[in-house]
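Amino Acid Chain and Its Fold in Token Form
===========================================
Purpose: to set a sequence beside its fold so the mapping can be learned.
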Amino acid sequence: MSQVTENKVIAAPVPMTPLQEFWHYFKRNKGAVVGLVYVVVMIVIAVFANFLAPYNPADQFRDSLLAPPFWQDGGSMAHLLGTDDVGRDILSRLMYGARLSLLVGCLVVVLSLILGVVLGLVAGYFGGVVDSIIMRVVDIMLALPSLLLALVLGGNLRALHRQRLAGANLRGAPRTMCVSRAPRCWWRSTVTT
């Protein structure tokens, strides 16, 4: 009485692409998924504000100055979030304001990236004294607290948009400098050994 077993070929699992692997681990973190949904909704609202906003953000409704939101006494469905002191619809202003907020955020990232890469490449290419000076400035910038830097810039640069752009650029650029300078350190260590 012998038992015959068949050899079954089990297919190896298909390897995931980097994007599939990223999504596989990303979707496990519920907070990250909620954050992603929120960011996507904000981008959609900002891009399609012309179609989604109930009113032009500059239109003034003089008959309903400082109207409360619809869920409070005196509020109406005509202005879901109410109106401001000159009668402009707050919901429409928020939708159109999301455009400016996203523009400032993207502009800060791009300017930080450009400044950081250029200074990092200069430090890596020239090395020596130039590298030491630039990297000491980077060390000082990384040591400064973000809030303190924003307050100092706010005191010196009176315009709010300048403060936001300059402060964010100065905070983001040092990290980019370190990353763009790193290949030089690796290359020099392989050449000298």
In short: Residues 90-126 form the longest helix (37 residues). The chain has a mean pLDDT of 83. Helices lie at 18-26, 30-47, 49-52, 90-126, 128-143, 146-156, 160-192.
